[in-house]
User: Fold Molybdate-binding periplasmic ABC transporter from Pandoraea pnomenusa.
Amino acid sequence: MKAVVIASLKFHAPAAMLRRALTVATVGAGLLFAGHAAAQQVFAAASMKNALDDLSAAYTRETGKKPVLVYGASSTLARQIEKGAPADVFISADQDWMDYAQKHDLIDTGTRRNLLGNELVLIAPATTTGDVDLKTGAELDAKLGGGRLAMGDPAHVPAGLYGKAALEKLGVWSKVQGRVAAADNVRNALLLVARGEAPYGIVYKTDANAEKRVRIAGTFPADSHAPIIYPVAVTKQANRAEADPFFKFLQSPAALATFQRYGFSRP
Assistant:
């Protein structure tokens, strides 16, 4: 059984009302708070979906055990764990939300590891052409025009936080923030651009690689935001007999090769 969490989407713009909502969709009713299932339950950042789906299938072939995968914004997942959601392993898209889990005594700190790295990119629909110079933000501001800039909610979604930091460093955040389409996770931001509902979006390189309907229009300078690191840890409430083998599997050479094939890097 596999669970996918997709949280709501909202547009932030002056004089604009909420135009679209994507409701939470969960495969397997009552999964999050129904207590531990037989398999290990893995709460992972939405940007990991394609790679982690492949790794889960490989793990099932090797062991006969099928992990339960729950995807969403790292902020949402950390808060769900705090409220008692039965997660065994937590993978965050940034250090801050793993720090939050650690501060609230939700993880076994001895298991915390930096698992992966990523890059922050600007995407556009695949039907368009032309790159955007991101050495300064002037070109992005001009090309965006009256269109929306899709990105994770900069108030709490890691991809949005990285994106806001980069735009601030480039000196254009104040100019574009009123045109931001803020999504509750990075994959929802990706969908806005893929569907042609936004001319540009800010996502991770791995998200862009996973969606044929978008192209990378520019890569944000590495020094425009904090390093993108995905930490992983076993939770305090974990069924260690189930969690530990999968936790070790995620750090195996074969798993790391799969992650790299999807565009992740070593931290």
